[in-house]
Amino acid sequence: MERKFYDLNISFDKNFVQRAKKLGLSGICLVANSKENIEDYLEKIKEIKKNETNIDIITGILIDEKADKILKIAKNVRRKVELVLVAGGNYEINRIACSSDYIDILCHPDKGRQDPGIDHICCREAREHDTIIELNFRELLTATGMEKIRELNKMKEIIRLCNKTKAKFIVNSGATNIFELRGGRELCSLSFCLGASLYDSLLANSEIAEKLILKNREKLNKKIAGVENGR
Amino acid sequence: MEDRTKTLPSSYREKKRYIIFEVISEQKIEFEELIKAVFSHTINLIGILGVAKTNFRFLHDLYDREKQRFVLRCLPKDVELIRFALSLITEINEKRVCIRSLGVTGTIKSARRKYLENFEY
Predict the structure, then answer these.
(1) Best residue in B68, B87, B97 to probe A by mutation, most A CBs within 10 Å?
(2) Model pLDDT for residues A157-172, shown as the tens digit of each residue
(3) Among A119, A206, A199, which residue's Cα sits nearest to residue A160?
(4) Per-residue pLDDT band at A145 (split at 50, 70, 90)
């Protein structure tokens, strides 16, 4: 049986769906920013879902706010979308994202930093609260020269910490245009080259992502006993 | 006496893997441009010594111009490294591209059968 590969951080655009199909991805998360209107976004996703049947389209909100607002927004959007992502880069934000049950994925914790942005404490918290730490492929594509070496070094450090603390990680493309999108095996090869085992790197982009989506969908569809129409 | 070494027995030969790639682009990419980009990106990522150690080889005969598919040869343990190196290519001669791997085979025959010809089981 062939593995199903997922990419859980792609900018919201219709064109990505066709390209993702061509690259052999089984599911993609078209992410909207938390500042956008969520109702409009969900409507657009519904329309795309009507036309596309071969690919799983996942709804997700990327929270790119200050540390004190993150949890509040996450609580609000949790019941509306399947995935809640947080844009990292600041240690405080990274720490909050790792230690919250409302947040699924911490995106690019190393963005704009000299260090990986997470430590053993964050990783341990992430493991306990089932938060997945993301490695962003786009960060690597846009970097040049010495920057690329630094990016690879930071990613290597994140994978080392995740291996050590058994925290989950995932490689997402973070694509903003169709040429930045990559296939599942290409995404896995990044984590494998940086020190993860082949099994872990394949698992990260396939089964872990699939389980997370199924779990969240189940939660969204679950009706609480004694409560009518979600009231 | 012929100035030629004898072919090594199969157990003495190094194992090989053939990776089949496809170029996705808006405009057609010339073969020479592609070779240059592939070599420069792999050398950029893993260095000259690294490339030499992987037994890296571009198989010219197996280039499919229509589908823009090509085959690279390397050692089994370096398959993921080569895949990663090529996934970092975003532009060839100012044309935006995306290179995707279709699969890995152990022989040229199966590479040709599975990915380069219209083969039906």
Answers:
(1) B87
(2) 999 999 999 999 999 9
(3) A119
(4) confident
